[in-house]
Amino acid sequence: MGSDSATPRGQLAAQKLAPARSGGTADPVRQRAVHRRAGRRGGQDPVAFRLKYVTASRDGAVIKAAAEKAGWQPRQAPRAARSGDILSGRGIAYAQRNGTIVAVVAEIEVERKTGRIWGRKFTVAHDCGLIINPQGLRDTIEGNVVQGLSRTLFEEVRFDREKVTSIDWMSYPILEIRDAPEAIEVVLINRPEIAPTGAGEPSIRVIPAAVANAFYDATGVRLRRVPLTPERVKAALARA
Fold first, then answer.
1. pLDDT value at position 33?
2. DSSP state of 159
3. Could you report the per-residue pLDDT of 26-37, keeping only the tens digit for each?
4. Contact 96, 198 (CB under 8 A)
5. Gap between the Cα atoms of 66 and 53, Å rounded
6. Domains present along the chain, CATH in parentheses
7. In this structure, what DSSP letter does residue 80 have?
8. pLDDT at 17
9. Going by C-beta distance under 8 Å and a sequence separation of 6 or more, which residues neighbour residue 113?
10. Does an H or E element contain 125, and which?
11. Which residues of 71-104 are buried (b: 16+ CB within 10 A; e: fewer)?
12. Which of 38, 161, 179, 186 could bridge 13 with an S-S bond, Cβ 3.0-4.6 Å?
């Protein structure tokens, strides 16, 4: 393969990993982490990196809306201050599903000793074309965030060589009240000229990647396998 020295660093990754407009089967955690890593290698802020390579105006508008609502402060590297037992970080992710475009900023806290991750706040910008029922749409998005966070931090089907071993709520834990976000803010982008494209699941897609990116921002360590359990968090921090 010839040299790509004339190509700006990160550009090839961005071209290859632009979100598909269909539901797709790509792993969102790995895909968005590669986006973020490419931007870091180029010394670029994650929001600026995405805006540099998106080509559709709707995509850019969603990313900007989430970042502005969340009060995003540009930063080219993970958070430098990592003293104390509680580490905080923020991460962004965006994706498309069947014509609906979503971006989310996750703000999390990581407890060093226990390995617990708390998704403290989520800011979601959502464009599904024409909005028919704004309150119903907000409720759906909030439900997506909570369910997506549960999948990101807790839910995992376990099995041995003979059977599934996750058979009850003890062996298949889900998010409980103590782990629920403190706040979920939603920005709805209404486009009456575009037929509605749905909101049943698009917001779930971005939660794992946003939380994983926030974990990297807080700790400087990458986690690429969900759920991000306390055991996996402590093991990753111990290896760092």
1. 53
2. B
3. 455 555 455 555
4. no
5. 17
6. 17-239 (3.30.365.10)
7. S
8. 40
9. 85
10. strand 117-127
11. ebeeeeebbeeeeeeebbbbbbbbbbbebbbbbb
12. 38
